[in-house]
Amino acid sequence: MNKPAGADINRPIQHTLTLKVRHAFNTLARIVGMFSGRGYSIDTISLGDAEEPENARLTITSQGDQKIIEQIVLQLEKLVDVLEVHDLTYDSFVERELALVKVACLPERRTEVTQVANIFGAKIVDISGHTLTVEVTGGPDKVNAAIEMLRPYDLQEVTRTGTVAMKREYESGARIRL
Fold it and tell me: What is the dihedral of CA 145, 176, 32, 52, to 10 degrees?
């Protein structure tokens, strides 16, 4: 892992952690409890099956300086059902998030909302006489921008998955977040 230089170590930034854990009773509760018990924040958390059926993958984003994140990683590694912990923050990695955004939309404004969705490569996944639901996928910045562009159309409901991330295998020497 590439570490930040000098002054960047003490500056809180968002870190992306990936964990491989055993599917076991209370594993997620122990992980969340470790964060809350020590006063660490979780910005997003996403859990899903891993390549082996008995394991799961978690992606957690959290704010902190390098010392705090190192402490979080050490504490996570001590948990019984945690098999691997990686801080991807200073590596090149792929991250994605999904959001479903429901907006009030009478038939005369559907074209406008559809154009906004198209700009972000989003899809209309549900339509009614008075609403449209848009599915947006991409990095958190793209999802945030799409939501802000849809805000003037009277947001009715927004739900987000949280970030999922994976280290890139291609080593370009630069951090790439598409």
Answer: 120
Residue 10: its pLDDT value, please?
73
Residue 8: pLDDT above 70?
A: no
Please report, rounded to a whole number, the percentage of residues in the chain having pLDDT higher than 90.
Answer: 86
Torsion angle in degrees (nearest 10) through CA of 66, 19, 48, 141: 20
- How does residue 172 score in pLDDT terms, banded at 50, 70 and 90? low
Backbone angles phi, psi at 74, to 5 degrees: -60, -45
- Interatomic CA distance for residues 116 and 113, integer angstroms: 5
Check whether 5 has a pLDDT greater than 60: no
What's the rounded Cα separation, in Å, for the pair 90 and 61?
13
* Contacts for 78 with CB less than 8 Å, ≥ 6 apart: none
First to last CA, the chain: 19
Global pTM reads 0.83
Between strands 123-127 and 155-160, the pairing is unpaired
What's the full length of the chain, in residues?
Answer: 178
Show contacts of 119-127: CB within 8 Å, 24+ apart.
Answer: 119/149, 120/145, 120/146, 120/149, 122/146, 125/100, 126/102
